[in-house]
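Q: Fold this one first, please.
A: Sequence and structure below.
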Amino acid sequence: MMPSVRHDRRSGATPALSANLQESRLIAGLLIAVALGYLGLFLVVPVIAVFAKALAKGVATYWAVISDPMAWASIRLTVIAAAIAVPLNTVFGLAASWAIAKFDFPGKNVLLTVIDLPFSVSPVISGMMFVLLFGAQGLFGGWLITHDIKIIFAVPGIVLATVFVTFPFVARELIPLMQAQGNDEEEAARTLGAGGWQIFFRVTLPNVKWGLLYGVIMCNARAMGEFGAVSVVSGHIRGLTNTMPLHVEILYNEYQFASAFGVASLLTLLALVTLASRRAIEWRATAEGVRQQPRQTQKEDR
């Protein structure tokens, strides 16, 4: 009797189980289709459209667009602003994350709040703050005019705005990583007689190298693509204070669509390179973590 009962149970459960599996597969297929359709509509199609418009009049026209002196001036200024902002924010991010994750001190929560400030303030408002500080009618405007120092509508203003909107990226990438790693290795190194800088360069920094590189890449991408804050402080002076995003806006407003999409394609290439670099870093970090896990297990067993 027992085998027949088991057979009945199986025969009764199998259709229900099959129906549930089919329903789950159908729901999964629908969700995947919706996700792929959304990505295709809002990401893939615009990227293809940018390159299609940029190359619509041929490669010769495209090369003439990106080799235009005004385009090169915007590229040069974008690179200069990023080359200054990224190293500064890297040093700040390392120092701030190390202090917040490894030490307790008065004002720690205030520092965390200040780091998040550019995320909560509109970039346009950020630019206006610098205008109110360093503009002709600003708080330090009179002193700057007296000493013939130009910040607003000049390269220093663009660099300041870029630094402000990008300084959270490295710190916010490293703080949770350092907190998750704890202080065990640093305390062990200090017990063995290592100094502060030795601990930082030989213990802390190697442990966060992939997170640091990830934060630097994201910081650089934001620096080169920043529009709002830079637009307020630049003055839109062609060949002098126009970054690549501002140059694209001017060309588009003047109905020079081929030129606008030509310069925009360079920014799109930067975004694609950033995504590829991000995935490569995540893969390397995951692979290194998998390699180190057996070593840690062996140490614990010992």
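Q: Good. Now the second chain.
A: Here it is, same layout.
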Amino acid sequence: MFAVVRTGGKQYRVAPGDKIVVEKLDGNAGDRITLGEVLLAGDGSDLKSTDGLTVAAEIVAQAKADKVTVFKKRRRHNYRRKKGHRQQHTILKIVAIGDQKEQKKAAPKAEAAPAEAPAKAAAAPAKASKAAKPDTSPAKVDAQPTENPAPQDPKAAAAPKAAAKDKPTAETPSTKNAAPAKGGAKKSPKAK
């Protein structure tokens, strides 16, 4: 099965297992996102309805493109400007299109499928109500932010606070008599 999805103002033809490079999307490596704007879907030469169809993808990495040099010049005017730019990209691996998953991962789960059949039958009416209202958002991230990346050790958590107390404040003698910052007061032009 294949689908044509739109993300970042561009269209991509995808199938389960494909890796694509798209414009930057929010999320970290390993996060799962849903691409809701499916323009076309089909199996072989048969086209299928795209109502409520979504494409599930996993973020492989956040990367940057090659550097592009922008050079502006106006001849005989001594005008030259040189800038560089690196576009940010997200590398996605397509996990599933609708209910159809990647072929490699679907084979081992075939044994567990009969046990899950009653649960899927109960979930079918819920999916039917979602199909009536298509998702128009471009991408959703299922990632959860971390609360505190610092270690749980109380001594390590207290160490940065102790270091902050040792820093000199603005009222120390070394800065009390210092000159003001540049550009603070403009001088009036001298009389001729």
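Q: Anything worth noting on the second one?
A: Residues 105-110 have pLDDT under 50 and may be disordered.
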